[in-house]
Input
Amino acid sequence: MSTAAVVSALMVGALTLGASPLAAQAGGGGVAGDAGRGRQVYERYCVQCHGERADGAGEVARWSQPKPRDFRQGVFKFTSTSYGLLPTTADLDRVIQNGLYGTRMPPFAALSKRERRDVIAYLQTQSPRWRTEQPGTPLAIPAEPTPTRESVTKGRELFEANCAKCHGDGTGNGTAAAKGMLDDWGMAIAPANLTLGRGKWARTVRDIYVRAMAGINGTPMPESGDALTPEQVWQVAHYVQALGGWPGSTPELRQFAAQLPPPSGAELPAAGAPADTTKQ
Output
């Protein structure tokens, strides 16, 4: 059997189990999950990728890029909290529900809210961080200003100064990316192609704002910290939104952004070579 067939069979097996969810038990709603029940959910739906020891070394892991999360380390990429802090339950719930676009992490919409809370409670037993630290407080997000040509222009300037080294012209072709980049687990990682109109986690301009403000744990993507004001982060978000078909972007601003000079810092293809549009 081919590698693709093996992976597909394992993933379909995990997802089709959603047709017969675990029997409902007491608890749920806003109540913290039950780790004992959560282990059963984990063994049904998660062990194929994340492994029996929650170390990210499941049966599918060898064919996965990026690799499945090693929950023993207590490091989670996509959070609404400041860089380096533990995620909230809502952060983990979002990833379980929606999956991560372009990866082998599928959406588990078939799981009930109680099942998701239970498996989250189980994951929180896998790292000592959960015993010594509390989840961070979600970042305060100010109201979004109206995107305009001026905000897109300013966003492009800020993008060039702060983002182009990795993201280049928005396709992920920055000079740092061309030299090769690694995440905190020692795996090769590429900057996101922001022209696709969505990211692994990000779907909206608000999501772009959060990622620019908070960074991505375990990766070279830093938090903005004091380098940018909230107003400036919104301007960067509006420029990124105008680079592709992100929800809320307008044809006018996409056309306007396309006419702006591309940010310097991109590793341009050799003359005559086609541009690499591979999704990262």
Summary: The chain has twelve helices and no strands.
